[in-house]
Amino acid sequence: MTQLTGERFLKYLLLIAVLATDAAANGFQTETIPVAPGTHEAAKVGLDSDFVLDSRGKIHIAYRDGSPSSGGSLYYATNKTGGWRAEQLTGFAKIDRNDVFRLAIAVGNSNQPYIAYARQVQGIGFLTRESGQWEVETIESANPAENSEISLTVDSAGNVHALYFLEVNGHLRYAKRSGGTWEIVTLADTGAAFGNRSDYTNSLYLDESDNVHIGYTDRGGDLHYITNESGSFISTALTSSQPYQQWSQKDFHVLPGGILHMAVSNIGVEGESVGCRAGERGLSYYTNINGALECEQVFDAYYQHQGLVASHGIGSPSVAFNEVGDVYISYLFAYYPDPFFRAFWTYYVYEANKVDDTWSRSLLEPNGFENPGSSFDLERRLNFNRTRLDQNGSPITTFFDGEPGVLQINRIIGEEDLELPTLQNIILIKALKDNLGRANLD
């Protein structure tokens, strides 16, 4: 048996480390977030999830459950210490299972989590763990607009920024927390919602100088851009919604200069056309990164999913993108198992990826979840999925898996799960590997 000594032995160790690292990051895996102690045994855990990555690449998730009798609770889960740990947050009233509820989570400069929520009747709330224990604050007690999204981020000085809509006239409100005190201004009057399937969507982004960049939709579905780069907030119209797009679901990010990345899907009612052009249906992607607004029809027919024609539609898009033009969109696809009896429908969780200018599709939740009732929009609100990118530019998606009733996360499990010193060593190993060659053990 040949003995490995000296430099040859070092090369062998480097080869083993590199192969192990490559294997760990070779594919996506779906994990189930463990159920927190005290969770109702019949609860639907994992509704309305939002998550964020901290400076070490660790994941922080906020979500809720939908207990059938006593109402739901709010939860927080993280893998910051290695394995997943989940806890039920206390200190505020239970959430009615049909309550319109939106969550947003951010982390501070020391990676401490903050959670904001927009909840019917009880206003806009905020949870902080700055003291080591969860504490509840009220941003404002006014009712949020129905279906109002809420955005949350933290600047370089540790100030927290929140964005949401109020019920009265659809006021777009921007709140900034500095020294424990909230300052709130109204940025726009968007008007009351125009239908029970309308939404109030927004995005909030801070640049390297902590300038604020906001995107929002108004009552008619038109998209606007607001920034304070000049010292005061200035609004400009970004896109005009066509009549056949106004009843759509959308997710977007507006970056400095009004750069837009947006995913749009039909709401799921037969006969509606929501796409790049009238008559198209399904899922579409918009961007103005090259100047003029461009639209790509990702999927223009329901039957492209599961080989099923009697479908109910595509909803709940969540879009993420990177600097080289790759785009990732998670969404729900729902269809009627029995086209003649439509009191039941089944949904699946999908992800559409555009890599190297080519769109592909993968199924994240393969079993499907049969749900009684015809209110797709209500269930869409409950089963909100989120897609973000990790530090290596790979997509991470959280979603509610209805069959077991749990929160799941799909991601590449690899380098980002290693402790920082180990990760630094692997980066060094990769650099050495390029010089030594994988198979050069002589």
What's the helix count? 3
Major β-sheet annotation? 4 strands, antiparallel
How do the strands line up in the largest sheet?
A: 1-28-27-26
> Kindly, what is the distance between the CA atoms of the first and last residues, rounded to a whole number of angstroms?
15 Å
Low-confidence stretches: 1-5, 8-26, 194-198, 373-382, 418-442
Percent range for β-strand residues:
35-45%
Principal-axis shape equals: globular
Rg, alpha carbons = 23 Å
| Helix/strand structural class | mainly beta
**Strand elements, count:** 28
Helix content: under 10%
Q: What does the average pLDDT come to? A: 77
Characterization of this structure:
This protein is mainly β and 442 residues long. Helix content is 10%, strand content 44%. It has a 4-stranded antiparallel beta sheet, with no helix packed on it. It has a 4-stranded antiparallel beta sheet with strand order 2-3-4-5, with no helix packed on it. A hairpin with a 3-residue loop joins strand 18 and strand 19. The longest helix is centred in the N-terminal third of the chain and has 19 residues, at 6-24. 40% of the residues are buried.
